[in-house]
Write a structure and sequence with these properties.
Blueprint lengths: L8 E4 L9 H28 L6 H28 L5 E3 H34 L4 H4 L2 H27 L8 E2 L6 H7 L5 H34 L4 H29 L9 H24 L2 H18 L1
Parallel strand pairs: 1-3
Antiparallel strand pairs: 1-2
């Protein structure tokens, strides 16, 4: 397996070194995964079947929910299986697929959150031309660009990572295949990979953050010009969920990727990874549904309709 021979599988050391905690961790993460999947699938379904939610904001929200499903499903089920397995392994090809889907989902989410902020800017600052600019054709076009960029970026990072030679070890001190940990296992020169990874993260992060910050700066200035308190509260309420999601997403990733990296994941690294692989995707639909009257009304209508038909 070492000294240049082919690695057919990787050993994932997981979250904890204490086997007696495996049942507790399994129960917690299984519950979180069920909540995450249920919440995001509900968002996808109701935004698809309810004509009242056939707007650009909810179209992009359904895209965000689908990304959260991809991100979580690429990592958590394998972790749950390994918590009850004696050999906590993932095949070489399974690691490739996991990294590809996870990286694509994360890169796409950066751009999608940016587009959602621009959508809120146009709705509040330019309402007369909002429907013309954010037409169904425009929304599909922007969504296609975002998804294409995310998957192209992921394709490059995944192929460049797995072209390397892995000869030091096949043990990944993490619960899923992430680029920094795999680069640390390689005996090849990874300087180019690390440089491109840093440049991509910084450019994506800074570019998207500037757009989001700029959009909300103009939104705040526009809202302050509204005379009625009720009008101000209504305008801010349409942005509150998105702002919360952006703060959670960026705050976690900034702490994760802009701190000194040792290549070998520490307990803090794993805890942060839990946040952006399962906690934030679980909270997103909750934040959007609890703070959004239209989503809650739509869910109630669908449930009432099903109960009425059954009755």
């Amino acid at each position: 397996m070492y000294n240049g021979s082919i690695i057919s599988e990787f050993i994932l050391l997981g979250l904890s070194n204490f086997p007696e905690l495996d049942i507790v961790l399994f129960s917690i993460f299984l519950l979180m995964y069920i909540i995450c999947m249920t919440g995001n699938l509900v968002i996808i379904i109701i935004t698809s079947i309810d004509p009242a939610l056939n707007t650009p904001m909810y179209f992009f929200l359904s895209n965000l929910s689908f990304l959260d499903v991809l991100c979580t499903t690429s990592t958590i089920p394998n972790m749950l299986v390994n918590l009850f397995s004696e050999r906590k392994v993932i095949s070489f090809h399974g690691c490739v697929v996991q990294m590809f889907i996870f990286t694509a989902a994360m890169d796409t989410e950066f751009l999608l959150l940016t587009i959602m902020s621009v959508d809120r800017y146009l709705a509040i600052c330019n309402p007369l031309h909002y429907k013309t600019i954010m037409s169904k054709k425009s929304c599909y076009f922007m969504s296609a660009i975002v998804w294409t960029f995310g998957f192209c970026s992921s394709t490059y990072h995944t192929t460049s990572t797995f072209r390397l030679s892995f000869c030091a070890s096949n043990k990944i001190n993490h619960f899923f295949c992430e680029i920094p940990q795999l680069l640390a296992l390689s005996c090849s020169d990874t300087s180019i990979n690390e440089l491109v990874l840093i440049v991509t993260d910084v450019v994506l992060g800074v570019f998207c953050f500037i757009f989001i910050f700029g959009s909300y700066l103009f939104i705040i200035l526009a809202v302050l010009k509204i005379r009625s308190t009720e009008g101000k509260m209504k305008a801010f309420s349409t942005c509150a969920s998105h702002i919360t999601v952006v703060l959670l997403f960026y705050g976690t990733l900034i702490f994760a990727y802009f701190k000194p990296s040792t290549g070998n994941a520490s307990n803090m690294d794993k805890a942060i990874a839990v946040l952006y692989t399962i906690v934030i995707p679980m909270l997103n639909p909750i934040l959007y549904s609890l703070r959004n009257k239209e989503v809650k009304d739509s869910v109630q209508k669908v449930i009432f309709r099903k109960v009425h038909v059954s009755y």
